[in-house]
Design brief:
This protein has about 375 residues and is mostly helical. It is built from 14 helices and no strands. Helix 1 packs antiparallel against helix 8.
Length: about 375
């Protein structure tokens, strides 16, 4: 592999995998061992170990003699061990938080271990493994297609081939990458990063693949482990929009923030409808329409449609409004109770509850009529 590596990329990758597997099997063959699982804490040190040894020694002495002095000595050694363990535990977690303050993943993993919550890999109840694998494959194909469609095309200068990487660049990439190992790897990544003799071979594989434009088949194999957040949930992959829409009851702000981020037009000016029924196509048209609309407020013009429920208006806008108790009651029953109280300090839920009282509906109807007529005003006692 190192003396006369093949020039073909597929043969080179096959030789690389076979050589590393044979070396690993020769020096570190698989062996079956019976291991007793014991809880090991990362903050355990030699000082605690020595204190526990002394505690155990005086404990055996007290169990033999049953003297009060030996019992007091045992309790004193026990308290020393407890204080040392609490101190080591606090120092370990403080150093861990300080060292990974910028890595949310590390902090979350440490928190899960601290509260003794481990990851559980529960597969969904599917009748056939082929159906499960097919669903996963369709999900990733759809995911890749969506990512490709979302990527905007930009103008770049064309080039005929890739730049050849040097051994120093490849070494920097290997050292900066994660040390995670897949079961399909011929040798653990930690050992590969320590073998400097493999650096020329890895560099040649990368450059040969880039120059030939061929990706070896051995590199296309991967093991997928689907993780479901909820055990027993339906095994269906849904889009982000559907997931957000289902969670609107619990997190409405995130849903509406997502909708606002998807708006293609100017976020400050939405499309408006012109008097002829057509929608505005530019920000300038919307601005002109808004200027004209605001002008009608001060000039009493009624060229634009009012922003109110047209069902409660029995005649044209130029005539006095005719508002009935029945229509006002329907409007009160349709109030959104999820909103907070307005400037009047009355919650919409209370107003909707009082909509069943005829006296209250009559008072609100009179208020609407007084505002529309602009001839009389109701006092707080009358309301």
């Amino acid at each position: 592999l190192c003396q006369s590596p093949p020039d073909d990329i597929d043969e080179l990758v096959a030789c690389y995998n076979a050589t590393l597997k044979s070396v690993l099997d020769k020096h570190a063959p698989l062996k079956n061992k019976v291991i007793i699982e014991r809880t090991r804490v990362p903050w355990f040190n030699e000082e605690i170990k020595e204190a526990k040894r002394k505690r155990r020694k005086v404990e055996r002495k007290w169990r033999d003699t049953r003297l009060a002095a030996d019992l007091a000595d045992f309790k004193q050694k026990r308290n020393v061990v407890t204080r040392l363990m609490n101190k080591a535990r606090r120092e370990f977690h403080s150093e861990f938080i300080d060292a990974h303050s910028g890595n949310q993943k590390k902090l979350f993993t440490g928190t899960m271990k601290l509260i003794n919550q481990s990851k559980t890999r529960d597969l969904p109840p599917v009748p056939d493994n082929a159906v499960c694998a097919s669903s996963i494959g369709k999900f990733f194909n759809r995911k890749i297609a969506n990512i490709r469609n979302a990527v905007t095309t930009i103008g770049v200068s064309p080039f005929s081939d890739f730049n050849v990487l040097t051994e120093q660049e490849v070494s920097a990439l290997i050292m900066s990458s994660s040390r995670k190992t897949s079961p399909t790897d011929p040798m653990p990544s930690k050992l590969v990063s320590e073998c400097s003799c493999l650096l020329p071979v890895i560099t040649k594989m990368i450059n040969t693949s880039l120059q030939s434009g061929h990706f070896p088949d051995d590199w296309k194999e991967v093991l997928l482990s689907p993780l479901l957040k909820k055990v027993g949930a339906d095994f269906t992959f849904q889009s982000k929009e559907i997931k957000l829409a289902k969670g609107i009851k619990y997190n409405s702000k995130q849903f509406y923030a997502y909708l606002r981020s998807k708006k293609k037009s100017n976020p400050t000016v939405s499309k408006l409808k012109k008097p002829n029924g057509e929608f505005t196509t530019s920000v300038k048209e919307s601005a002109d329409l808004l200027v004209k609309s605001f002008a009608t407020v001060f000039t009493n013009e009624t060229s634009l449609t009012r922003d109110c429920n047209m069902d409660i208006i029995a005649v044209k806008q130029i005539d006095p409004l005719v508002i009935s108790d029945y229509d006002v009651k329907n409007e009160l029953l349709a109030l959104d109770v999820s909103k907070c109280a307005g400037p009047d300090g009355v919650h919409p839920k209370i107003v909707r509850f009082l909509a069943g009282n005829d006296n209250f509906v009559s008072a609100v109807t009179a208020l609407y009529r007084s505002i529309s007529d602009n001839s009389q005003k109701l006092g707080r006692k009358q309301l």
